[in-house]
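Give me the fold.
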Amino acid sequence: MALNKNHEYEELDGVRCGIVEKNVKPERVAFLKELLEGNGYTVMSVPTPAPKIAAVPKPIVTTGEAEQPQTSNIEPQTILPDTFTVGVTDYTFNTINAIFGRMLKTKDGHIVTMAYWQQKEEASHDEIPYYEHT
């Protein structure tokens, strides 16, 4: 149960985790994993469960004769997940607090900014917090 939308946690593979992001592509998983593990967190990612779809009922066909079971040459296909849920084992982790609290650093030692987190910038540029302006 989440305290609010910005502080979600749930079990991923049987481990209680603070949710970092849901429905992310594999490239984003790799970025988040590298960044968060560099900051000392243990990262877990699991495939996003498929949406629940109601089963389509098969039509009933009556021919008057005893019905013969029909076999199909179509084999069920395994669908690979295209999105993942990413979490860290510290279930108190909050993405917003970590970014704006300046608690995350890049591998070269710069503070992670929101633009860097959202992958809008290639490198994080340390910003002087508003309260330190003279």
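The chain has a mean pLDDT of 80.
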